[in-house]
Design a protein that fits this description.
The chain is an alpha+beta fold. It is 32% helix and 32% strand. Strand 19 (366-371) and strand 20 (374-379) form a beta hairpin.
């Protein structure tokens, strides 16, 4: 049997423990409810905008983005056509006058007048410099006086010769005296020839006192002034004249290209030559090839050629560097496209071909000659094919394209089911 007193003590202890636990829970319950309410308020504050956006979102906007078709890429296109291209040989050249003359004096004297201005265009025969002619006029007068004197002496000798011939025929004088008189007459005749030569030399010196332009061209900077004493032995000249029209260009090409030029010169052709500026942006003149040098420069492996140009517009200037282009062939009936359409990969050359469905396909091509931003297509394209020339950086096989500037129809949204 259980002891009633012991049982009563145990029950009282259990009731006390239950009361203590109940009091502790009751003391912590307000803080628990405060934490729950704060969490609910925060969730409502931050989650309500997203919830409202999701409630107002249309079914089409909720469609996954991966299912929307991509818009066409705007590009610029060109059409391959049948045409012709010129084949040129290129070389670096220097504008060289056909004639350049340093005018010098043939007589000594003082410069009296200059009849030109620096940079003036002169014609052949125009007076440039006048040298003092008076010393040579005096020489002419002296030579003419000596001629008159010798003419009188000769006349007297001829009279004596006629008398001696008559006397010798009568055996009145010895033959030696007659022969001596004949020789004297010949001597006086020779003196007359010498006097005439002196007169001609004096007259020529007078002509040389007037220095005229030997060619038509442009006068350079003057080298003497009025009052200067000049000599025929001076190394420096009086003025330099350069012919400007026509003018030539001397340029070089590689030795492996000589035969293409020689074959045309041998057949009587004079290939067309174009002179371009240093940047190959402006064509300065068009001329013809005249000749080719007679040997190859072994140090550079090139040969010199001379082309002549009409320079009435004065666009070519002596010693100017130009790019010369010799036309050696004209290829006709070929397929050409703009250079911008050609793309170069690590192993091939290709273009983006626009197909009827306005999608592009990668098409491999073979490129021949190129000229003036146009290229010959030897295989891979036909006249009428449309290729992309601008906007290729966003293209790949099958990409839809639209001509730049054209309105592309936007894809319609898919209907919600």
């Amino acid at each position: 049997m259980k002891d009633p007193e012991l049982t009563s003590v145990v029950e009282r202890r259990q009731d006390k423990d239950l009361h203590d636990r109940t009091s502790a829970v009751s003391s912590r319950r307000p803080w628990l409810w405060i934490l729950v309410l704060a969490s609910a308020a925060a969730a409502a504050y931050f989650g309500w905008p997203k919830l409202r956006l999701s409630l107002h979102r249309t079914p089409s906007a909720a469609t996954p983005e991966t299912h929307r078709p991509s818009p066409p890429v705007p590009v610029t296109t060109a059409t391959a056509r049948a045409g012709s291209l010129d084949v040129y040989l290129n070389g670096l050249g220097v504008v060289t006058p056909i004639y350049t003359v340093t005018v010098k004096s043939r007589v000594d004297g003082q410069v009296m007048e200059l009849h030109y201005h620096e940079g003036q265009m002169v014609k052949q025969g125009d007076l440039l410099v006048q040298i003092d002619p008076r010393p040579y006029a005096v020489q002419l007068a002296q030579a003419e006086g000596q001629l008159s004197k010798d003419q009188a002496v000769l006349s007297n000798a001829r009279t004596d010769l006629a008398r001696y011939e008559k006397l010798w025929s009568q055996n009145a004088i010895p033959q030696q005296q007659l022969a001596t008189q004949q020789s004297l007459v010949k001597q006086y005749e020779a003196n007359l020839q010498s006097d005439q030569a002196q007169i001609d030399a004096a007259k020529l010196n007078l002509v040389y006192c007037r220095i005229a332009a030997p060619i038509t061209g442009r006068v350079g900077l003057r080298l003497v002034d009025p009052g200067n004493i000049i000599h025929a032995s001076d190394n420096t000249g009086l003025v330099v004249i350069t012919q400007l029209d026509p003018i030539s260009v001397i340029f070089t090409i590689g030795e492996d290209q000589i035969q293409e030029v020689l074959s045309r010169l041998a057949s009587g052709q004079h290939p067309r030559v174009e002179a371009w500026d240093r940047d190959l942006k402006h064509r300065l003149a068009v001329g013809t090839l005249n000749t080719i040098d007679n040997q190859i420069d072994q140090t550079t492996g090139t040969v010199k050629l001379r082309a002549e140009f009409d320079n009435s517009a004065r666009l070519l200037f002596p010693s100017q560097f130009v790019n010369a282009r010799v036309l050696v062939e004209r290829k006709s009936g070929i397929t050409v496209v703009p250079m911008a359409a050609i793309q170069r990969g690590p192993q091939s050359t290709y273009v983006y071909l626009v197909q009827p469905g306005r999608t592009v396909a990668v098409r491999g091509v073979s490129v021949g000659i190129t000229e003036n931003d146009m290229a010959e297509i030897t295989s891979g394209l036909s006249p009428g094919d449309v290729v992309v020339t601008d906007g290729v950086d966003k293209l790949q096989q099958g990409t839809r394209v639209v001509e730049r500037g054209a309105s592309a129809a936007a894809p319609k949204p898919r209907s919600a089911k």
